[in-house]
Write a structure and sequence with these properties.
The complex is a heterodimer of chains A (about 120) and B (about 625).
Chain A (H helix, E strand, L loop, with lengths): L28 H13 L2 H6 L2 E6 L5 H6 L6 E8 L2 E6 L5 H8 L5 E6 L2 E4 L1
Antiparallel strand pairs in A: 1-3, 1-4, 2-3
Chain B lengths: L8 H10 L25 E10 L5 H9 L5 E6 L4 E5 L6 H9 L4 E8 L48 H5 L4 E11 L25 E3 L16 H10 L14 E8 L6 E3 H13 L2 E6 L1 E5 L3 H12 L3 E5 L30 E3 L8 E7 L18 E4 L3 E5 L3 E3 L7 E2 L4 E5 L2 E6 L14 E8 L6 E11 L6 E7 L11 E6 L2 E9 L8 E8 L8 E12 L5 E5 L2 H18 L5 H10 L2 E2 L11 E2 L2 H7 L12
Parallel strand pairs in B: 5-7, 5-9, 6-7, 9-11, 11-13, 13-14, 14-29
Antiparallel strand pairs in B: 1-3, 1-4, 2-3, 10-12, 15-27, 16-26, 17-20, 18-19, 19-26, 20-25, 21-24, 21-26, 22-23, 22-25, 28-29
Helix pairs in contact in B: 5-8, 6-7, 8-9, 9-10
Chain lengths: ~120, ~625
């Protein structure tokens, strides 16, 4: 158990620097286990990016027009990635499949995809 | 190939010092590599051999003897030693001739006419630890991958990227920019500073860009943000400077592109921006020691194409398998995020699985050139292997270690001692023999550390805790003014309950004082007790200006920069070479490695000398013959 461990590939065991304060009441016991599992196995960054998407505009389109077409999801522009690409965050996240369907036939958006996560190896 | 033709690098060096028949590899026509690229060990002149006749033979008798075997000519090399050079009949292979001449009773022995070239070794103090550059069978100190680290009896030595031979041709790659798209690089590191890209002329004063924080300073921000610095050192730590390590390139122009944060995570948006930045600012080679699994990341793939259109070679890591620690076949498109196999056939491991021609994906080899246990592989996706275990390279800051045995103020059940041969801080006192902690505990253990002068700091340790979930807690706190970190003025870093073990990495940059107190606490209620807490491998990772630190690390992240260094070397050696020619040279100039057969598209390990030798000699280069 206590072999020397330091390796890039072990990153997924990291206890991310969150402060978790549990209730002292006995009823909280089962729930606390669920929370603990989330923290140990799901790095913050993954959760953060689950509602981020990158959209690519059709040539000649304006970002303001593109955002209007996704207003139903309470969209927030995060970053201009240049070359007609924009990083957006959806406060109401419908998921990528729904979004892909939404942009079929769009005048302004050519492509939408999740903002995927990558890690050191 | 006749096994007797395989000679080790060490043997080559000894012969080079004693054999008068020496020529530059590029001066000896024809090069064998384009025709028989399966092994760079075949460094001998085709169509001729050397034979040593028995001393009783006259020159005339020698000529008659070889003529009877169909030789075209025989030329005396050394009368004293009775050595002659025999030109073989057309179509006769060297290996067949050796076999035939060995059976000639007039000949003591026959051998290939090996090709030699100038070699060079740097004087960097830690160079003897760089087995990937020159494998002498050395034991790597403080390894994190013990398998096949001598004196491990299973170790087989002498496999490396043949850097020494390549350095006889070129050490200065600075004419070509190599971008490291990664976490930040500590560009003030004493072994990197002189080899960083100078972007000041184009308004980029700090050697690159930070896309995570959207500014022009890609310096790491966290105490544990070492990855990019380590990768950069393998590509281009300053060589022959009497200090530290050397990169594949002794002189380099390294562009830092920060797209991964202090925890090593990044996203599509920053990565594609980083690739575009590197390609637009003159990078010829990009290293990306990163990866992830998802459905097709179209925009990431498009970014690779963007770089290809600008003649950029991109070298990437094959990935390190999953949480089980075992490498996966990424051709089956079923690795889980970070590895493992989630059974989802719709996901692919990226960017390694992208199919553009400018992309080289690299698996990790250990010190015996076995596939590292953690390394992903793929007969289609992965191209070559390279050293990826126990790689020593530059580190962003000092590592402050503590063996947990002295200076700790302990209360309650906290005890320091040895469990399973490892120094450990534990609670209860009989934790090693599976005791249980006390009810109503408020047990604390803490110690002060001097962290003044560092730019950032991260607390790192391994913990195993087993407490009553939701009621008994394991806590970790800090206090910059010293004293009990759980008292007023302390800051809670972690407060967790239940059963788990793993590595904790906690940002303590707000505790950079000369009296930073760090502590652990066990609290319990009045019912149910469990095994408690054990802590070891305690250390503080720092970030510091002008770092002179180094550390050993393993991963495909470490194999990729070996190849990126070779790619940069090739492009500097012949500035006219395209991305396609560079990739071809690395793939076809590699060394055949049994462990990579069926695991990579080439079955080869990248080899610096083989790659250089594969390409046509550039006309502007004057070969040096020793």
């Amino acid at each position: 158990m206590f072999n020397k461990i330091f390796n890039c590939r072990l990153l997924y065991f990291i206890l991310f620097a969150g402060v978790v304060v549990f209730s002292g009441c006995k009823e909280a016991k089962n729930n606390s286990n669920d929370i603990e599992t989330q923290i140990l196995n799901n790095p913050d960054k993954i959760k953060k990016n689950s509602s981020e998407y990158i959209i690519v505009l059709k040539e000649g389109s304006k970002i303001t027009d593109a955002l209007n077409s996704l207003n139903a999801y309470d969209i927030r522009l995060i970053k201009d990635l240049k070359q007609d690409r924009y990083l957006v965050e959806l406060k109401k996240n419908p998921g990528i499949e729904r979004l892909k369907n939404d942009i079929i036939g769009s005048e302004y958006i050519k492509h939408i995809q999740p903002n995927f996560i990558y890690t050191t190896q | 190939m006749n096994a007797s033709f395989i000679i080790s690098n060490k043997t080559l060096i000894v012969l080079a010092l004693t054999t008068p028949i020496m020529s530059n590899v590029f001066a000896a026509p024809p090069l064998s590599f384009p025709i028989q690229p399966s092994s760079v060990k075949e460094k001998f002149v085709q169509g001729e051999i050397l034979v040593r006749f028995k001393s009783s033979m006259t020159i005339q008798a020698q000529q008659l003897s070889v003529a009877s075997q169909g030789a075209r000519s025989v030329k005396l090399v050394s009368g004293i030693m009775n050595i002659s050079k025999v030109k073989l009949s057309l179509g006769e292979t060297v290996s067949a001739a050796i076999e035939a001449y060995q059976s000639n009773p007039n000949i003591e022995y026959a051998q290939p006419n090996y090709i030699y070239h100038a070699t060079a070794l740097p004087n960097d103090t830690s160079f003897p630890q760089l087995w990937g550059m020159k494998n002498t069978g050395q034991t790597i100190s403080d390894p994190d991958y013990p398998t096949n680290n001598p004196p491990d009896p299973t170790a087989i030595v002498f496999f490396d990227i043949d850097a020494e031979s390549a350095w006889g041709q070129i050490t200065d790659c600075s004419s070509k920019v190599v971008a490291v798209i990664d976490t930040g690089i500590n560009y003030t590191h004493l072994d990197l500073a002189a080899n960083m890209w100078d972007g000041s002329g184009v308004g980029i004063p700090n050697h690159g860009w930070d896309f995570v924080d959207s500014d022009n300073d890609p310096l790491p921000v966290g105490g544990g943000e070492d990855h990019g610095t380590h990768v950069a050192g393998t590509i281009g730590a300053v060589g022959d400077n009497n200090a530290g390590v050397t990169g594949v390139c002794w002189q380099a122009s390294i562009m830092s592109v920060r797209v991964l944060d202090e925890n090593g995570f990044g996203d599509t948006a920053d990565i594609i921006s980083g690739i575009q930045f590197a390609a637009d600012n003159g990078a010829s080679v990009i290293n990306m020691s990163l990866g992830g699994e998802s459905i097709l990341d179209t925009l990431f793939k498009d970014a690779i194409t963007y770089a290809q259109d600008r003649d950029v070679v991109i070298v990437v890591a094959a990935g390190n398998g999953g949480t089980d620690g075992d490498g996966d076949d990424i051709d089956d498109n079923r690795p889980i995020f970070g590895g493992g196999d989630d059974g989802d056939v719709n996901t692919i491991y990226q960017p390694c699985s992208f199919d553009q021609d400018n992309l080289l994906c690299v698996a990790a080899l250990d010190q015996s050139y076995s596939l590292a246990s953690f390394s992903n592989y793929g007969a289609t996706s992965v191209d070559v292997g390279a050293p990826g275990t126990n790689v020593l390279s530059s580190w962003a800051g000092q590592i402050i270690t503590d063996d947990l045995t002295s200076g700790w103020i302990l209360s309650g059940g906290w005890t320091t001692g040895t469990c399973a041969l490892t120094n450990t801080l534990f609670n209860p006192s009989d934790w090693c023999s599976n005791g249980t902690y006390a009810n109503n505990a408020d047990d604390r253990a803490y110690k002060s550390f001097n962290l003044s002068g560092f730019l950032a700091a991260e607390l790192y340790y391994f913990v195993s805790f087993d407490t009553e979930a939701g009621f008994d807690f394991f806590s970790n706190s800090m206090k910059s003014s010293g004293g009990d970190p759980f008292a007023v003025g302390g800051t809670t870093l972690l407060n967790i309950s239940g059963t788990q073990e793993g590595i904790a990495k906690l940002n303590i940059s707000s505790c950079i004082t000369s009296t930073c107190s760090l502590g652990f606490r066990l609290t319990s209620d009045d019912t149910v007790v469990k095994k408690g807490i054990g802590i070891n491998n305690f250390r503080i990772n720092t970030l510091q200006t002008n770092s002179s630190s180094y550390n050993v690390s393993s991963g495909t992240s470490m194999s990729s920069p070996h190849v990126a260094g070779i790619a940069t070397m090739i492009r500097a050696f012949n500035p006219n070479y395209t991305y396609a020619q560079t990739v071809e040279a690395i793939k076809n100039g590699g060394e055949t490695v049994a462990a990579l057969s069926g695991k990579t598209s080439t079955g080869r390990a990248a080899n610096a000398m083989g790659a250089l030798a594969y390409i046509t000699q550039p006309t502007e280069v004057v070969a040096v013959v020793q």
